[in-house]
Design a protein that fits this description.
This protein has 16 helices and 13 strands. The protein is an alpha/beta fold. Helix 10 links the parallel strand 4 and strand 5. Helix 4 packs across helix 9, helix 12 packs across helix 13 and helix 15 packs antiparallel against helix 16. The longest helix has 17 residues. The chain starts with a helix and ends with a strand.
Amino acid sequence: MDMKYIIQKKKSGRSLTSEEIDEMVQEYVKGQIPDYQMAAFLMAVCFKGMTEEETANLTLSFVNSGDKLDLSDIKGIKVDKHSSGGVGDKISLIVVPLVAALGVPVAKMSGRGLGHTGGTIDKLEAIEGFNTRLSKKDFISNVNTYKMAIAGQSSNLTPADKKIYALRDVTSTVESIPLIASSIMSKKIALGADAIVLDVKVGSGAFMKSLGEAKDLARTMVSIGKSLNKKTIALVTDMNQPLGHEVGNANEVKEAIEVLKGKGAEDETLVALTIASYMAVLGGVFQDVNTAYKALEELIKSGRAIEKFRELVKIQRGNPQVIDNPKLFPQAQNHIDIKAHKNGYVYKIQAESIGRSAMLLGAGRKTKEDIIDLSAGITMVKKVGDKVSIGDTLCILHSNMDNCMEAEEIALNAFSIGTTKPPEIQYIYDVIE
């Protein structure tokens, strides 16, 4: 194909046809288009954007570049959930058993963490024996029988997106709504769900720092989903401080268990129940979100929610005793209190800094090849709005490392303490349908 013509066409702000986009993507994957020409095209997209139709076509081309999961053997409306990433985000661990307990099939394919954001697969591996490498047969059988399964993603899922994302990362072309949206949605479409609930994080610990950008991304992804015949809803939720009180793999599973027992933090409980409510509505079990929310609250109060999580652990060969005995999770040897140096109120917490600190403690990866410490992490003792005095513990670092000085400094500097109490944080900013 004439790649120079494609670059010129996009540079001048004209729209590309679906055939032009698909041919370009497939030839790039085959190595027939050089990186420097694709980089020029991506830069043109950053400046000129893409129409909704172009973005949907780009998404579909990513999907068609690799494996697609056929879930047609699963009975019912299959609902998936995706988060754009954050610090302390253990929502998937909570909503999968909750929604499955309502009878909605949840076929969840998840990834591993990279950088300051955690991955669901890493977290689940903190449960002794938990198997995330399910065969397709077992994956489908578990969803049909128990309404739930969580497994790692295929390595050949959307290879075009993987290759183009790597190029975007080194050519400063990451921050483009059409490119971000097509990257995220291609993986969701390839995974075969009928309906998708998107959790778009916004704030200091999220990829999207401003509310306007987050809403634009949410609207674009919803448009893509609908254009490809997927029921899609997006929630824009807060990530200006870590979600809940725990950051780190084993820590976050323990906290998810507390939520399912009805003892969770207000912010993560509200976000989890709201996302689960929309999943239940898209799955056809309820007609409205409020009724679904009340039913989910009742599942927690009755103990059925935690029993469904216990069932998930059992069917994926994990040790269910961890649910009642948190000491069976991996335990860090060192625990370091980070203390307040002044009186006042916690006015702000830089969530990304907390994530970076946790990564340095061993809870995250700088590169995909890094081995993580499942016991490492941070407990947030104080949250935004809490009153503090000199010497009060703001957070506790958990690690097996002998020297944590850099992580300690980053964690301390993540807290801003003011003389007045800040406005209450809004946990959910918008719902886009």
